[in-house]
């Protein structure tokens, strides 16, 4: 029985760890940035942990931007942001996952951002642009960290089907 050298295994583990650093830095950069909000109105319920902004809402934090006619922010029991729900004719979310990656953009009548899971739901006339790739449908779910997209033609509470369409760009040789 031959033993495999430990050095290649340790090198692989180090490379995998280093590959995650830019993403972690981008997340930390956004999380540590101040939250800037513009809206026509704010209804804040500190006990319930909700803030409802209405009227051409524009929220920015680092590379993340969330817009809509109405945006509802929910905080958990410890006071941390847990979920943001934007609604409107074309609610919008964008974020640059890492400094060397293109901005991810999403639209829908409803955009739900689950902060802890770093998961986005785009509902009703949903559209997602990731680099040159595009996805359209009734419901799109996007996991920011894993770069996973799940699409459906129907969304709960939405009448009718909105067929899934996607355009994928070929891989570029380096």
Summarize the structure.
This protein is 16% helix and 52% strand. The chain has one helix at 6-32; strands spanning 35-38, 41-45, 50-61, 64-75, 81-95, 104-114, 119-130, 133-143, 148-152, 165-167. Mean pLDDT is 81; it is low at 1-25.
Task: Give a structural overview.
The protein is 16% helix and 52% strand. With 174 residues, the protein is α+β, with helices and mostly antiparallel strands. The chain has one domain: Lipopolysaccharide (LPS) transport protein A like domain (lipopolysaccharide transport protein A fold). Strands 1, 2, 3, 4, 5, 6, 7, 8, 9 and 10 form a ten-stranded antiparallel β-sheet that branches. Strand 4 (64-75) and strand 5 form a beta hairpin. The longest helix is centred in the first third of the chain and has 27 residues, at 6-32. The protein is globular. The N and C termini lie far apart (40 Å).
